[in-house]
Amino acid sequence: MSFQVFGIAVSRGVAIGRAVLVASSRVDVAHYFVAPDEIQAEIARLLRARDAVVQELETLKNELPEDAPHELAALLDVHLMLLHDEAFTGGASQWIVDRHYNAEWALSAQLEVLARAFDEMEDDYLRERKADLEQVVERVLGALAQEQGDAPTPVTPRDFAGEDPLLLVAADIAPADMIQFKRSVFRGFITDIGGKTSHTAIVARSMDIPAVVGTREASRLIMQDDWVIIDGDAGTVIVNPSPIVLEEYRFRQRQSELERARLARLRHTPAVTLDGEHIELHANIEMPADAEAAVAAGATGVGLFRSEFLFMNRDGELPSEDEQFEAYKAAVEAMKGMPVTIRTVDVGADKPLDRLTVNELRHEHVLNPAMGLRAIRWSLAEPSMFRQQLRAIYRASAYGKVRLLIPMVAHLSEVRQILETIKKVQQQLTDAGHAFTRVELGVMIEIPAAAVMLPLLLRHVDFVSIGTNDLIQYTLAIDRADEAVAHLYDPWHPAVLQLISQSIAQARAAGKGVSVCGEMAGDPDFTELLLAMGLRSFSMHPSQIPAVKQRVLRADAQRLAGALPKLLDSEDPQATAERELAAVRAAPAAAH
Ligand code: PEP
Ligand code: MG
């Protein structure tokens, strides 16, 4: 039966493929394909791991002391029974044969299928056996990890014929796991949780694959292997589409591929408005390797290197100074003399260091993480970690143009502490004989307090970067990762527009650099608005650069600026913008 699920559109385009349901706790299981000639060996690997667990449990059972409660032996029997059940290894083996999944993936796919069957059972006792099944899977995954050496060589889907594209469906995905999917097999994402600028959505956008988040129950309604269409423009998911609908979406998919190819031709065209204003289109990156995509997309620098992703997936161990230095240097070298803006670590809120999802974090750990110890607050609370990161960033400055960006600044006292730490770090580097050059210092404008007192902050810094994702969140008191209030997360809110517009004007008046690096900068619907406000530097995911560039090339910055007062005075800025900015577009271009 065909049905639709509605969510929030976060990454554009159409993806068509089969659903892969992944439990949030299983997202970090390795997902890769096995070559056809390795399928039998992979099944054997799975069975060996199963047998090892059987052996382990049997030994445990035989060695149970006389006085052990008899429930314990019964429990071990249940686990052994599950391990021998054909639906368990037989089902998992089938995923390996049919879909070429590696053993770990096959096992978690089968767990999803069986867990659902358990959920639907009437009998309480049987329903509760789901927990046993999960424990058994956990054990087999553990046994598979023990014999990593025998794991097959991963192959990409293109290496064998007949595969269907795969779309990931999960209740939620932690940003730390999301980053591992960057080079993954999935061509689209659907999650129950999240908002337009939650970090999971941001990473999906950086991967340039369609995604819909905040669907609330997609992971419950969609079945493993269902055919699914993700409409990343409308924020809808169509499950088991009819052939006519499928054909319609295949057509749209082809159209958007053609449009992309057309826009890609703008790569070498400088971003200059009709009235001759040069616009910087910089890239937001999460890993040094992303710099390659930035250059390929025609970025003229990196406006935001979210360094926190270097700190994730490390089992609590932080990256050393040398490791960070190598990462920053790699990004700087890849950008070949173009500026690289490295933001100091911004963990906390919906970006925990470990693999927690937003929900886990909210419910189990911190009362209100978005307002807690995150970003610069965390760095200042961990001075040696902060100095280490600053040293690594300064050392990278010997290899190109590095700029330092501090997230979530709200107090002048924080800026003073940062300046003092920088002085200390420069001295340490000089003493140790490390080379470095001048590094411009910038702060992010993400908290309304920073925007309101910007003239004071500007006395101490070289540039500012407006983080609209958080600025909207904190101005409107809307958790950016909470789908329940996503409809109130409004970049067009008059208060938001006032803060952005004032910040740009004040920074320009002070002769300081100003850019926007939040998601608004990469959304072509806001390009003219930001140009009208006087913005000349935008930073976004590389994949968004061509579409924004196209808007820039067709814009007349001076005439757009003329429409701004009406817009800022409007009670419905979005409607006014549509009317006023369209009028600028329609009017014959003036000679300049
Ligand atoms: C922002 O808040 O707009 C921003 C760019 O930072 P992040 O999305 O990483 O919080
Ligand atoms: Mg932010």
Automatic annotation (TrEMBL):
PANTHER family: PHOSPHOENOLPYRUVATE-PROTEIN PHOSPHOTRANSFERASE
Localization, UniProt: Cytoplasm
Transmembrane domains' residue ranges: none
Catalytic activity: L-histidyl-[protein] + phosphoenolpyruvate = N(pros)-phospho-L-histidyl-[protein] + pyruvate
Record-listed E.C. numbers: 2.7.3.9
Function recorded in the entry: General (non sugar-specific) component of the phosphoenolpyruvate-dependent sugar phosphotransferase system (sugar PTS). This major carbohydrate active-transport system catalyzes the phosphorylation of incoming sugar substrates concomitantly with their translocation across the cell membrane. Enzyme I transfers the phosphoryl group from phosphoenolpyruvate (PEP) to the phosphoryl carrier protein (HPr).
Limits of the PEP-utilising enzyme C-terminal domain: 261-555
Pfam family membership, one: PEP-utilisers_N
Cofactor entry: Mg(2+)
InterPro entries: PEP-util_enz_mobile_dom (IPR008279), PEP-utilizing_PTS_enzyme (IPR050499), PEP_util_AS (IPR018274), PEP_util_C (IPR000121), PEP_util_CS (IPR023151), Phosphohistidine_dom_sf (IPR036637), PTS_EI (IPR024692), PTS_EI-like (IPR006318)
The name this protein goes by in its record: Phosphoenolpyruvate-protein phosphotransferase
Residue ranges of every copy of the Phosphotransferase system enzyme I N-terminal domain listed in the record: 7-129
UniProt-recorded Gene Ontology molecular function terms: phosphoenolpyruvate-protein phosphotransferase activity
Annotated keywords: Cytoplasm, Kinase, Magnesium, Metal-binding, Phosphotransferase system, Sugar transport, Transferase, Transport
PEP-utilising enzyme mobile domain span: 164-235
Similarity comment text for this entry: Belongs to the PEP-utilizing enzyme family.
